[in-house]
Automatic annotation (TrEMBL):
Keywords: Signal. The keyword Signal applies. It comes from Pelomonas cellulosilytica. This is Lipoprotein. Residues 84-128 are annotated as: Disordered. Residues 97-128 have a biased composition (Basic and acidic residues). Residues 1-19 form the signal peptide. It comes from the Bacteria.
């Protein structure tokens, strides 16, 4: 019996050092992913984003944990009467203001080019 314990002791020590070999513990990995998803949800609520926007912006995050973090931050902000901070990244599907400025010069050039053929056709009509 004593021999069995002595032989199994190095095996147990080797198995307890799996993290040193680069083998991740699945329980710790799952806990880290859940904590990250809760942090994402909290950050989304603080940035005044809808929960649906959080899901779209973070497709790999666990939806239940994102919602839990969003809900916890919502309760915290309501209790402490805190205002959210406007997000820097635009909402999905929203047009940024810079795009509107770029469209207007293009529209003007399109209008000018459409006027030229009309003038030419009017000149041809006068000639006939």
């Amino acid at each position: 019996m004593k021999r069995l314990v002595l032989l199994s002791l190095p095996l147990l020590m080797a198995l307890s050092a799996c993290e040193q070999l680069g083998i991740d513990d699945p329980v710790k990995v799952a806990a880290a992913k859940e904590a990250d998803a809760k942090a994402i949800g909290s950050a989304c609520r603080h940035a005044m984003r809808a929960i649906e926007d959080c899901y779209v912006l973070n497709p790999k995050a666990q939806k239940a944990a994102v919602y839990a973090g969003w809900r916890e931050m919502d309760e915290y902000m309501r209790e402490n009467k805190l205002e959210g901070i406007a997000p820097v990244v635009p909402r999905p599907g929203a047009k940024p203001a810079a795009d509107d400025a770029e469209v207007k010069p293009a529209e003007k050039s399109a209008d000018k080019s459409s006027d030229k053929p009309a003038e030419k056709s009017a000149d041809k009509a006068k000639a006939h």
